[in-house]
Design brief:
Layout (H helix, E strand, L loop, with lengths): L1 H15 L6 H14 L7 H11 L16 H22 L9 H13 L2 H12 L9 H16 L4 H14 L10 H10 L1 H5 L1
Family: Belongs to the recoverin family.
GO molecular function: calcium ion binding
Protein name: FREQ
């Protein structure tokens, strides 16, 4: 019986960390998380599997049976999914230990729901800045937006993503070959959120 009380106290202590969420929601998410990931963490391989099962959004899960896709397209889609998952995994894996816990997911989610502009943009910047250099090259920025468009629309949208990147750079009065900093991201978020949400 002592173990049960200890477990409940630990769970309640964990729940109290996340005031942005209802305790019953956290309990449900925890139960679902543990059923999907019995080891109580997500590996990069688990994340790849999730994304390859659910993305691109408007394509069937088995990319090889889609007749309009060429083998090179399937290869490119898989590369995009892998790149995107690697970025997402690094951004979510706060402890940098190769395992994403429910706590790490809740921290990131709470930043997006109730976080300050600084917290939100810092997390987004961290997502793009996979090498943790403090700046994001135009190439990395463009490639990531290409990957997101592919995941969302199920097709390559180079023109659309290039147009968006150009608009964002122009809005910052940045040289199109320069890198973006965290300050640039904060400025984009505060002054050009309409471009980012598109």
């Amino acid at each position: 019986m002592g173990n049960r009380i200890s477990f409940v106290n630990e769970q309640d202590k964990e729940i109290r960390k996340f005031k942005h969420f209802q305790p019953k929601d956290i309990r449900e998410w925890s139960k679902e998380f543990k059923s999907l990931f019995p080891l109580k963490y997500i590996t990069v391989s688990d994340l790849y599997t999730l994304f390859k099962t659910h993305f691109p959004l408007n394509l069937t899960n088995d990319l090889t049976i889609i007749t309009h896709l060429k083998p090179d397209d399937v290869t490119e889609i898989n590369k995009s999914i892998n790149r995107f998952c690697s970025r997402l995994f690094k951004a979510l894996n706060i402890a940098d230990n190769g395992k994403i816990t429910l706590t790490e997911l809740l921290i990131s989610t709470s930043k997006f729901i109730r976080g300050s502009t600084f917290e939100k943009t810092t997390w987004i910047f961290r997502f793009y800045d996979i090498n943790q250099e403090g700046e994001i090259s135009r190439e990395t920025f463009s490639e990531t937006i290409d990957d997101m468009f592919l995941l969302i629309y199920g097709q390559f949208c180079k023109d659309k993503s290039n147009e968006l990147v150009n608009q964002l750079y122009n809005s910052l009065n940045k040289d199109h070959n320069s890198s973006l900093t965290l300050e640039d991201f904060i400025q984009l978020y505060e002054n050009h959120f309409d471009l980012l949400k598109n």
